[in-house]
Amino acid sequence: MNKLKQLALAAGFVLMTGAAAFAQDAVQGKKIFEGNCAACHSMDADVVGPALKDVHERRGDEWLHKFISNSQELIQSGDADAVAVYEKFKKMPMPAFEGSLSEDDINHVIAYIKEASAAAPAQAEETAATTTVKADTPAAPQDVAFMDLPPIVHFIYGLVGLIILLIVVVLVMLFRVIVPMMGDSLKDEEFQATFSGRVYALLSGDATVMTGKAKDEIHSNHDFDGIQEYDNDLPPWWKYMFYVTIVFAVGYMLHYHVFRTGALQAEEYEMEMQQAALIAAQNVEDPNAVTNYEVLTDAAALESGKSLYIQNCAACHGQAGEGTVGPNLTDEYWLHGGDVNDIFKTVKFGVPSKGMVPWQGKLTKDQMLEVSSYILSLQGTNPPNAKEAQGEKE
Q1: CATH 1.10.760.10: does it fit domain 299-393?
Q2: In angstroms, rounded to a whole number, what is the distance separating the alpha carbons of residues 171 and 68?
Q3: Where would one find the signal peptide in this protein (predicted)?
Q4: Contact by Cβ (8 Å): 322, 387
């Protein structure tokens, strides 16, 4: 019995210390993950890299350790899973962490992934419950259906429809009464030349007023390999439209090019861009909004920017801004503009199509301005192993 008690105590001690060690690993791993991985990975959704929920079950701890240490080495070895991930995410190389993270650090990160994956189902259930509560909340009022309109509106619609129907009936009756009274006079050339005669002919099925008369006269000396040309009138509708285009062209030229009372395309474009800028300026979440931030130069702001850069940006741009997955930030070339306002917008809104995640909501405006200013302070530092220039020189 004593031996059984001792064994039970020993097993309990091992379980307790093992659980404590796992928890401690996960806590430390969360800090490492947020400082090095969170910019490109999420647990539940693909960002720059794949979602990591339950990745340890799909790949195994040993594979994860190798991939985090040096993903390119694993890809070059021909590992099918590594190659598949590389191909799926547009061949964007993941930085090798074997030089910056120890084996224990990587194990801590894997422990955190396991803990976060286990916690994800509970979060999903909570989200589903929240969604159900929202679904039970009355929706905003929709447009009123026609049948739900007040009776007076139905009466007005019915009255208008009845009046239109009566007008049509009266016109048809007048047409049926008057036409027989006119007799043979409808065929007189004088009547057919009038507007009323043309309308009558068109309503009677005679489309001459639209197509013109077919003279069936062959042009003399117009014989091309047995193909002959008839001297028929052009359709009146075509001729009238042609005359209208001539009048329109003259008016257009006078309006835009002689009197210059109208704005040409270039001027309209400038006016619309100015209007768009005014509208965008009222919405701080619009990427086109005009900003006029100044570069921060005081030591405290730059030190804060450096700290934020190391924590959030170094994983993709290098510790010294030399560029790894992302571009080199120390040269004179920029993909999205090298002014502090351009860099601020790139940091804030990101470039999702190229793997640059947006940082709005994660960093405050002041923090994004500090990071942008720190990035500009890296200009001309020429760090070792700098990535080749990308973009345009500024």
Answers
A1: yes
A2: 85
A3: 1-23
A4: yes
Task: Name the packing angle between helices 365-377 and 340-349 (round to 10°).
Answer: 130
Lowest mean pLDDT across 89-93, 138-142, 250-254, 289-293: 138-142
* Domain 21-118 class in CATH: mainly alpha
pTM reported for the whole predicted model: 0.45
Residue appearing with tokens 């920029």: 334
Give the SS3 label for residue 260.
coil
- State how far the Cα of 57 lies from the Cα of 117, in Å rounded to an integer: 10
* Dihedral sign for Cα atoms in the order 193, 194, 195, 200: negative
- 3-state DSSP assignment of residue 220: strand
Token pair listed for 392: 């345009």
Over residues 33-50, the pLDDT tens digits come to 877 787 778 888 777 778
Which residue(s) pair with 230 in the sheet? 218
**DSSP state for residue 205 in the 8-state scheme:** T
Question: Domain-by-domain residue ranges, the chain?
Answer: 21-118, 149-210, 211-216+233-283, 299-393
Q: Which residues contact residue 293 at a Cβ distance below 8 angstroms, ignoring those fewer than 6 apart?
A: 340, 341, 344, 369, 372
d(CA 325, CA 36): 13
Q: Which two tokens stand for residue 299?
A: 């030591």
- The structure tokens listed for 189 are 């050339």
Place of tokens 């003279």: 215
> Same topology for domains 21-118 and 299-393, yes or no?
yes
Residue 27 C-beta-side C-alpha neighbours within 13 Å:
6
User: Rounded to an integer, what distance in angstroms lies between the CA atom of residue 88 and that of residue 67?
Assistant: 15
